[in-house]
Amino acid sequence: MHPSRKACDLCYRKKIKCDGETPRCSPCVIYKSDCTYKASSRKTPSKKQAAAQRQFREDSLQSRIKTLEDQLSTVLEKVDKLEKQSGSEQNTPNSTPRHASEEDTMVANWASSLPPILELPPLQEVLPIVEHYLATFNTIMPLFHSETLLQKIKDWYENSHVRDTVTWAMINVVLALSPHTGWSNNVAQTGNAAVYLNNAQSVLTDVIMGKIDLINIQVLLGIVILFRTADDLRPALILTSTALRLAHRLGLHNRKASEYLCPVVSLQRNRVFWIAYILDRDISLLSRLAPIQLDGEIDLSLPPSEATDDLTGFVFAADGRTKLNFFRARVELARIQGKVYESIYSPSAQNANSEERTKNVSRTLRMLDEWSSGLPTEFSLASLSQANVPELSRYLCLLYATPVSCRALLCCASAWDSYHYSKWVGRVQDYGEQVVTGQVVSHAPTLPHGWKQLVDESREYLKLFATVIPRDSYFIRMTLCAYNSSTICLMANSIISARNKRTEQSSEFAWTDTIFSDDMAEHSYREIRDAVMRLGFYANNRSQMVPLK
């Protein structure tokens, strides 16, 4: 008899569905583990309870921010009123000193406490964090011009009388981005990222409603990058839309608005706009919503494919000579992401017949093929996995996550679901169960259009993924969709491809099963973990069977 807890120790630890089979459940068979129930039962909250807890935390945070903003607004109004009264009294002859009321004293106390709200760590602590960010993530996603950012930070510390909330928000955003987007062995620094983010959020009203400048848009986009890895993408969607509207006000999408500016400022304006474009296309596709920015309303050149003196945005291959403009490649992929939305989720795609949909999907798949073929050979997935250059592998694994996810969507998704929950994957699971249990199966599920290319690309992507060690939280969340898509694809291929030799199937399954590691599994939704486990179980059994004739 099993204890009252339904899941065995392995399934409970990995947070996967346990079927309770004896003597060993299916996941324990796959992981070659003893099926035990020794660990004490710890009741986990239900989905409804977990959602309620998350909502409570979000509401509480928003309430605190709103309260702080209201208090600041009230205090600033009263301070302004007192300053006007003071000026009036000083300019009035024969005026007599006025005794301070209780309200005046309260306002004075509040006013004297305002500066600490804009406090930052000492400059000697801030600069290494900022320089780390500029040397890592900002090199491939150049949200800030390095010299300009460093100068603004030094001015903040050297000239206390010119400090403003927007600059303070910018510094906090950079301090949060540095540990969030790259490797960080400093646990305290990583933990402070949430504090810095909350600081920036506390002055969002000033950032959005104040005088519009490039820095305001940079702050908003920095916060979007921080929110991009959250489960709830609504804040990122709202702030991306706001940032793009402000970008339009400044004319960032139009080259004429920058033609009389100095080259450095003009270049940075272009880069900030393209980052907003990337985030808009990326987050909109994840949310199955139409992007805000239309291609027809952009009058800007793409980032250069060849470098001159400025190598910002470029990465170098293992040979140290061949280079790729990572930033330009990501902008090109963002444009394709817009086409993926049009092919799958747009109203026209939902109303299209099968022939029209196939035609649109084929056109977008060709765009992905052209994008891949346009990269130098040294940056192909196969070359990168063999080169085994950790930092380069990390950047390119982030880059290739987009085309792999797009290809999986185009092959298997419909307007009403994503790849991981698609009806086609469900049919593969049903087919695998029928084969493993010895039921009579007339034929395997029909392979989607472009399946072979998806299988090949998924296999190469997971090989490259395996070379990235360690895997920080940002990397895991940004590659999670492509990783799960690739894993499911290879397991599904092992189940339905009767033409492969049994040894090849067994080898591929064993490797795929190994790559589905704990760090990725714990970040995946339960439905996806269950899908992978079911497919893995059927693929393992299928690989040990004689191939169908």
Tell me about this structure.
By secondary structure, this protein is mostly helical. It has 3 domains: 39 residues, CD2-Gal4 (Irregular), CATH 4.10.240.10; 180 residues, no CATH class; 230 residues, no CATH class. Helix content is 65%, strand content 1%. It has 24 helices and 2 strands. Helix 13 packs parallel to helix 14, helix 19 packs across helix 21 and helix 19 packs parallel to helix 24. The radius of gyration is 27 Å and the shape is globular. It starts with 8 loop residues before the first helix and ends in a 6-residue tail after the last helix. About 8% of the residues have low confidence.
List the helices and strands and how they pair.
Elements: H1 9-14, H2 26-30, H3 47-90, H4 102-117, H5 123-135, H6 137-140, H7 146-158, H8 165-180, H9 187-202, H10 204-209, H11 214-227, H12 234-250, H13 263-286, E1 314-316, E2 323-325, H14 326-344, H15 347-351, H16 354-373, H17 381-387, H18 390-412, H19 423-436, H20 451-466, H21 473-496, H22 502-515, H23 518-521, H24 526-543
Antiparallel strand pairs: 1-2
Helix pairs in contact: 3-4, 5-7, 5-8, 8-9, 8-11, 11-12, 11-13, 12-13, 13-14, 14-16, 14-18, 16-18, 17-20, 18-20, 18-21, 19-21, 19-24, 20-21, 21-22, 21-24, 22-24
